[in-house]
Amino acid sequence: MGMKDPPRDRPRLYLSSPTMHGDEQRFIQEAFDSNWIAPLGRNVDEFEREVAAYVGVPCAVALISGTAALHLAVKLAGAGPGDLVFCSDLTFAATVNPVSYEGGRQVFIDAERETWNMSPQALEAAFKKYDGSAPDRPRPKAVIAVSLYGTPAKFDELNAICDRHGVPLIEDAAESLSATYKGSQTGKLGRYGILSFNGNKIITTSGGGMLLTHDAASARKARFWATQARDPAPWYEHSELGYNYRMSNVLAGIGRGQLLHLEAHRARKQRIYQRYKQGLQGLPLVMNPCPDNTRPNHWLSCILLDADLSLTPEDLRLKLEEYNMEARPLWKPMHMQPFYQGHDFISQEGNVAADLFERGLCLPSDIKMTDAQQDEVISIIRGLLARG
Ligand SMILES: *Cc1c(COP(=O)(O)O)cnc(C)c1O
Which residues contact 93 (CB under 8 A, 6 or more apart)? Predict the structure, then answer.
């Protein structure tokens, strides 16, 4: 396979890590020069304006994390104690946890093979089951759908179902900023959208997130909740429960600098995906989906091993780890998580999420990876799969 013994001290190759350019410093310096270090300030206002313009939504609210944005979206959708929310099953826990923050209950909707995202058929089946006809079958207050690894979900189908039932769709676009679905940016395709600027995402503020909405009233309400829910009064007056969720002006400066390089990051991620696809051709595997009518941002390149192999993704992961290369199983489905034991799981064509989890692996997709490094990853995978 042309690989020598793995040297002990080779630099770690990451799934996805922050890539800074220097422009970030310029915006941070502005914040320092104007003494606007404290929460809010010009960078926050401009970062919100710039992201809203990029995605094509009227309103954006910069927050401390994508999780905080999801929490406020769940509140805006009106999901409270005892309420049901239909959630993507194959995702990161942050997509679904905020429902529990509000005392609601998740029903998990299976993935489909075509996009790895929420299956419209399974969503339809969930609406049939939870039709309000009995106390244990209440109608849901919201649907939360993710675009996993930067591949957009089938939003036309999901929105049509949600509209028919009069239930708002919350779009978790934490992983998909700059991906498009039928020419539209992800993040604007539901009633509410959320982004993450966590360190591993396509652009980062070290930590941060954003809520995107189509109406100014929702944005105002989110800002109110995110700044301790202070009623208009000279003293601290509170008629609602508040949170300390706003992004700092310093971090928003990092975001403004990163945003200048978003398209370059996306192009680089796409090239990584295409090189994997080319390099792994002929092996018993497929890459994560790239459906017609969508332009994924290729945040992570993933493989799905054929079902009849004796070699497992874990064998591959451990081999790559020997070379100090980071690979990771796909997100473990929520209905398989101990914390969510006993929650309903709606599926239409077998357990797709569990099957993808068992056979899938995320590969190093860091945009600082050189072609030579990526060729090594490819060569290691070829070496194992050609034999096994
Ligand atoms: C990263 C991520 C989040 C959470 O974002 P944070 O900014 O880390 O809170 C939510 N959903 C998905 C799918 C994510 O990948």
Answer: 334, 337, 339
